[in-house]
Specification:
122 residues; five-stranded antiparallel beta sheet; alpha+beta
């Protein structure tokens, strides 16, 4: 008969094979079939719990940046360590390296971690 698909029989027993549904749609359809309202409440709880964890993480970062002071060692989001030498409202000037000639202004949002001078052990 050749290599064409004429006469080929496909198995369309699963709805996902027919419409190629995404994972989210599959979960919703399964909850409709098996979980009913309880499934929807579980999804809402997980969504709200995740949102509250996100808010806590944001509050933690905001408090870290509010306590930022001159002389603190910072880790930037790009992975560089430096020392804060000046702070304005939303920017900081960070000094990188030991030669004291590399000073870069950056946004506070680019700081991912802060170490106070008394925490640094050499």
């Amino acid at each position: 008969m050749g290599s064409d698909d004429f006469g080929q029989v496909y198995d369309f027993r699963r709805i996902s094979d027919v419409f190629n549904l995404s994972n989210r749609e599959r979960v919703i359809r399964r909850l409709d079939q098996h979980g009913g309202m309880a499934g929807y409440f579980i999804c809402i709880y997980v969504f709200l719990h995740g949102a509250s964890a996100e808010e806590k993480e944001q509050q933690k970062k905001n408090s870290m940046l509010a306590e930022l002071a001159v002389g603190d060692t910072v880790l930037t989001t790009s992975g560089f360590y430096g020392t804060v030498i000046d702070i304005t409202d939303d920017t900081v000037i960070v000094e990188f390296g030991s030669n004291k000639n590399c000073r870069i202004p950056m946004q506070k949002a680019a700081i991912s971690a802060v170490e106070k001078p008394e925490d640094v052990t050499e």
